[in-house]
Design brief:
By secondary structure, the protein is of the alpha/beta class. The chain is 41% helix and 21% strand. It has 13 helices and 16 strands. Strands 6-5-4-7-11 form a five-stranded mixed sheet, sandwiched between helices. It is globular, with a radius of gyration of 23 Å.
């Protein structure tokens, strides 16, 4: 005899599959859904009735009949509900309200002013409170999704380890749910970007990929056979803390020679400032920012590269060498279909991406060099918010990849 719990689980799974089919294939009829996913018409009709009542599906026109009554077509409606996405980094807390297709309706960016530990948790809660305070009510809110670098226990909603922000075993999901009464989801940021590339980007047809992001740190998300690989303690993908130079500079994680200390934005910024202060090499950055070093940003660095600045090209070449070595190791270990690069340093920086491709192609096993597929993210500048939205779609609706 089938237990009630088993039946409820199957109904929820069928419902998710039906909604996902409407999202991807709509406008589509009930009968075509049943045929496409091999589920009984009665099950489809029941689930669609619920989804229409909830507002996430609507009837949208009449289809062509192959004999008999013309079918009513169904379409996913992303605008009746919304999600709140939060991205916590060393530098900023970004918060956005988005529809269920990741379209940003409202967005705020708040500097962290280098807050750490309990201070940044308090700041995050304060910023969420202010963001939600402007809404009359939270009707239609599907929940709050928070993404952050570091080791995250997504199942329990705990930030297990983030050495830069000094966050250890923080039950952030529980804290947010207790304060705001909204379902809350927490995940590692780069894992979230992998999901976002599948839901919103151009890489949904890939099942084996590695996503690398370069910012204040360096992280990676790994997908194998369509599933995120989290590892035993949720720490897989800590690419930035792999040793690239034996005996190199000490990292805040306690190790020496970590990759991120050579290619993250603080390392790049430090090299630029050092060159400006010693006046050892002429650079267009001086013309772009004058003597105000606070104006040196990743976009300024990229602009200088695209203008052929010798200093920034030299720094980029060092980055290419270190990152390519790590990518070669990844290719030899995992053999992914595609490696995706993101971060402000990557945006509008085809010279950097092309240099990585060239270096990697020349150094991987000969049998693999023609299959090297390294691409910039397709998510654009709002990749962080799209990542947060994707986490809720995965957890709340169990959309397939």
């Amino acid at each position: 005899m089938r237990r009630t719990g088993d039946l409820k689980l199957m109904q929820e799974l069928n419902r998710s599959i039906i909604l996902d089919t409407i999202r991807k294939q709509g406008p589509i009829s009930r009968s075509d859904i049943a045929k496409l996913i091999n589920i009984s018409p009665t099950t489809v009709t029941s689930a669609v009735h619920e989804l229409i009542n909830e507002g996430v599906v609507r009837e949208d026109g009449i289809g062509t009949s192959s004999g008999g009554r013309k079918p009513v077509l169904l379409r996913f409606d992303p605008n009746t509900r919304y999600v709140i996405g939060v991205s916590i980094t060393n530098s900023f807390i970004k918060i956005a309200e988005m529809n269920l297709e990741g379209r940003i309706l409202r967005k705020e960016i708040h500097p962290t002013n280098y807050s750490q530990g309990q201070e940044i948790i308090s700041l995050t809660l304060k910023m969420i409170h202010q963001f939600l305070e402007s809404k009359e009510n939270l009707d239609g809110c599907e929940g709050i999704s928070i993404i952050t670098p570091g080791i995250v226990d997504a199942a329990k909603g705990i930030i297990s380890y983030n050495s830069k922000l000094k966050l250890y075993d923080i039950p952030l999901k529980q804290l947010v749910e207790n304060q705001f009464g909204q379902p809350t989801f927490l995940d590692n940021d780069t894992n979230a970007y992998v999901l976002a590339e599948n839901y919103f980007g151009s890489f949904g047809h890939f099942k084996d990929l590695v996503y690398i992001t370069i910012g204040d740190g360096v992280g990676s998300g790994i997908m194998v056979n369509g599933k995120i690989i989290r590892g035993f303690k949720g720490s897989s993908g800590e690419l930035g803390h792999t040793t690239i130079v034996k005996g190199g500079p000490k990292c805040e994680c306690g190790n020496e020679g970590c990759l991120e200390n050579y290619i993250n934005w603080p390392a790049v910024y430090s090299k630029i400032v050092s060159a400006l202060m010693t006046r050892g090499k002429e650079t267009v950055i001086r013309n772009l920012v004058g003597e105000d070093f606070n104006r040196i940003t990743p976009s300024v660095f990229v602009k200088a590269i695209n203008e052929g600045d010798s200093l920034c090209l030299d720094i980029m070449d060092e980055m290419v060498s270190h990152l390519s070595t790590s990518i070669i190791n990844i290719i030899h270990l995992l053999n992914p279909e595609v490696i995706i690069l993101s971060g402000e340093i990557v945006q509008e920086n085809s010279i950097f991406v092309d240099s990585i491709k060239d270096y990697v192609s020349r150094h991987v096993l000969p049998i693999l060099n023609e299959e090297v597929n390294i691409q910039p993210t397709s998510l654009g500048a709002d990749f962080e918010m799209l990542g947060a939205a994707a986490v809720i779609l995965q957890e709340k609706y169990q959309f397939t990849i």
